[in-house]
Amino acid sequence: MKDCIQSMVVLVEGRIVVRVLSGAVVLALGILVAVPIWALQAAVPAITKPPLVRGLPDKFDEASDAFQTRIAEVFPPGFPEPDMIQRLRTEGFTQPVFEESGMRRAVLQLSMPGCMMTWRVRWQARNGYLVSAAGDQGATCL
Prior knowledge:
The chain is an alpha+beta fold.
C-alpha cells in the first residue's frame, strides 16, 4: 500500500511539473508573439504620418509650436496657393474650407493609440498667392 501511495505521489508531482512547464512554454510563446506585434503597432503611426506632421516633438506644446514653425517655413508668404492645396491634399488634409473671415482651412485627423490627433492649417491668400499661413495641433484622448 505504501508503494502504491508513493507511486501516486510521484505521478501527481510529475503532472504538476508538466503543467507548470506547459504554462511556461505557453507564456514564452505568448511573449514571442506579443512583443513584435506591440512594437509594430507602436511604430505604425510614425510610419504612416505624412511628412508635414512626421517627426514632431512628443510633448504637446512643443509639437504644436514645431508644427506652426514648419507650416510657416514650407508655405511662406508669396507661395502659390494651388501648390499649397495640392501638397495638403496629397498628405491627407481635407479639401480647403473657406471661412467668413476670408481665411481658408484644411484639417488632417489621424487615429493614434488612445488619441485622435488633429492638425489644422489656416491661411489667407490674395490673387492666388499666400499672404499668411499658420498651423496648430490638437488631440482628443481617452
